[in-house]
Amino acid sequence: MFIKSIFVTFIVLLECISNIASAELIKIMSFNIHHSEQHDGTISIASIADKIITERADIIVLQEVDDKTKRTNNVDQLAQIAKLANLKYYKFGAFFDYDGGQYGMGIISRYPIIDSYNIPLPDGPEPRTSLMTTVNINGKKLNVIGVHLYRSLEERILQAQAIVDYVKSSTLPLIVTGDFNTTPSNSSPTKYVNSTIDHGKDNTLMQYLTSHWTRLEKIGNKVSFPSGNMWDDDGEGQVEIDHTFIKNLDINSVKAHYLIKGIVSDHRPLITEISW
């Protein structure tokens, strides 16, 4: 009986080790890059790529990306960032035509992107879409949605509802990350509450989102915009408006945090590390 008990324990340990070994360790970066414009007005795609390389990010969700516009020298920004970061797979989702090219968001991946769809969102003062990709991570499928909700509360709510409705029947693991222009319900009031920009303390929208998805709490400094003093010229405060949500994802561990050092945009990059 004693030998049998040891054998059973050994088998259980082997299964645990096997599960740990087969777990996928994935690092996701969400970053509003402000079309790669630096504080001094120069355009630097390399600075964005350097962040990706330094962090060894596997999936990168970028907001405010230019595609062949005159203001950014007619460059395909997403393709160039992917090339500089030595990452093969990427998809662009256009919001609208702009300045001779297009403006929108993009997703770059170390793993094959096997499907993508640019989800149309309700019309508002500025057209928006939400880019969804399906990524094949060593045989596991993961849906990744990039988000950049509009600044006004009414538009944010309608856009969030459209995204939730689009994926509500999917059973695939889901990560939704990006610039929600919305602070958590427990945030301290800032200059943006009640302002025309309205990155407000928006309990209604955050409660709606967390009723459908799980929001990942961040470790450490919880400020994402503006990214630092040089981007916050009036010195009136900063807010937490970039977030990651998950659904249908059985994770072994998770860690989310903002990158504080080396500011290259008006937002700080959001890093989410998961083991699943």
From TrEMBL:
Segments forming domain Endonuclease/exonuclease/phosphatase: 29-267
InterPro entries with a match to the protein in the record: Endo/exonu/phosph_ase_sf, Endo/exonuclease/phosphatase, GPI-anchor_lipid_remodeler
Database matches in SUPFAM superfamilies: DNase I-like
An example Gene Ontology biological process: GPI anchor biosynthetic process
GO molecular function, a single term: catalytic activity
Superkingdom: Bacteria
Gene Ontology CC entries for this record: membrane
Protein name, as recorded: Endonuclease/exonuclease/phosphatase domain-containing protein
Species of the source: Gilliamella apicola
